[in-house]
Design brief:
Length: 119
């Protein structure tokens, strides 16, 4: 048992071990990526870590790509998948909307981190 490794998120076993870039639980067989240094530092300092749809840690000023077409109230089209959004700002938004940004053709709005991917 390594005291520096987190317990298994699935079964809470304390006997996790590292295998390359993954952490593995010998009791239930669950594998998950080891936390990156920036995510671990932010978690240790009490900051909220915001991740995109594939698990990359987001930061203020990043450029992201929308991964699925989004409906926008009052707009006939919406934001299409593949649209790049530059210079995002992370906020503690309402109802899971944790990215504040300006989308070309739509103006300022908030997006959920679960519908974007870091570019």
């Amino acid at each position: 048992m390594n005291e520096n490794l987190p317990p298994c998120p699935q079964c809470s076993s304390a006997y996790t071990y590292e295998m390359g870039a993954l952490l593995v639980c010998p009791e239930c067989g669950h594998e998950w990526p080891a936390a990156s240094d920036t995510a671990a530092e932010a978690a240790a300092s009490g900051e909220k870590v915001i991740k995109d749809s594939v698990g990359n840690v987001l930061a203020d000023g990043d450029t992201v790509t929308v991964v699925k077409t989004l409906k926008v109230k009052g707009s006939p089209s919406g934001i299409k998948a593949g649209t790049k959004v530059r210079n995002i700002r992370l906020v503690d938004g309402v109802d899971g909307h944790d990215i504040d940004c300006k989308v070309d053709g739509f103006g300022p709005m908030q997006l959920k981190s679960s519908v974007v991917k870091k570019a």
